[in-house]
Amino acid sequence: MLYSVVNPPPFVDARAELTAPKQEKALLETAVNLLVPSATGDGEFHGPSINEFFPDVIFFADTPFEINRIILIRFLSVAVLMLVFWLGTRRMKVIPTRMQSIAEMGLDFVRVNIAEDLLGKKDGRRFLPLLTTIFFMVLFMNVTGIIPFLNIAGTSVIGVPLLLGVISYGTFIYAGVKKSPAKFFRNSLFPPGVPPALYIIVTPIEFISTFLVRPVTLTLRLMMNMIVGHLLLVLFFSATHFFFFTADGGFKLFGAGTLVFGFAFTLFEVLIAVLQAYIFALLTAVYIQLALAEEH
């Protein structure tokens, strides 16, 4: 991604005072371009494009290990996540430090509100590492969508949502088979209490909803929310850039409105980032609970 750079002149003369406002405007345009990559200065408004989710390769081009901007953001998210919990757990004390308190609050939130609330203490503690990893991995990758200079969520491309969806689905199958090896698939496809004549209708529906739809909905729900959030933020801030620096006359006033909406949706996107992490971990726990149910 290219950004313009404003170089100061090699000398200063009497004309510098006349060009100073133009230089300040150019500096401000450059700052906005850094924060809003899709804004352009060709005199026309350019809204967000789906191409932003397919950035150019930065390292290892034309190899199976190609790394682009979004993958670097994923690496950064995981590194920060590991650093936060390392700082919070490296020296555990009876009277916790600030970082230890933050780590314990996060872990307790997942343990109490997701794992033990749905699965009970025994099974909740059993699957707590998985649920905790899913929650915080999704959360940290979602939040990058509102951080300046990153500006896109690591979960806005299908790779990570699909991987987590498959892991959630595989855990559901594992839990069910281990709990009831002989009854899990039978009870899932042929629910007890249904008249035998209706199995010709019920069984295909159960197969699709239980074994096909669940990982797909987990993947698409997370990915599409992050895509839409990114496009909305880019739209508002690109429009702000256009109205302030390109539009003429009274149209510049619209920039104040789009700027306010941009900041409002930024706060809303924080809520969505947390909510989507919670929903993904919660649904994973719900599926595990269904697999461990007595009728299986």
Structure, described:
The chain has 296 residues and is mainly alpha-helical. The protein has one domain (76-292). The chain has helices spanning 16-35, 69-89, 98-143, 159-179, 184-189, 199-245, 254-292, and strands at 57-59, 67-68. It has a two-stranded antiparallel ribbon. It starts with 15 loop residues before the first helix and ends with a helix. Pfam families: ATP-synt_A. One of its GO terms (molecular function) is proton-transporting ATP synthase activity, rotational mechanism. It is a multi-pass membrane protein. Belongs to the ATPase A chain family.
For the secondary structure, the number of strands is 2
Cross-sheet strand order for the largest sheet: 1-2
Order of helices and strands: HEEHHHHHH
Low-confidence stretches: 1-21, 30-41
Count of the domains: 1
Keywords: ATP synthesis, Cell membrane, CF(0), Hydrogen ion transport, Ion transport, Membrane, Transmembrane, Transmembrane helix, Transport
InterPro entries: ATP_synth_F0_asu, ATP_synth_F0_asu_bact/mt, F0_ATP_A_sf
GO molecular function, one term: proton-transporting ATP synthase activity, rotational mechanism
Family: Belongs to the ATPase A chain family.
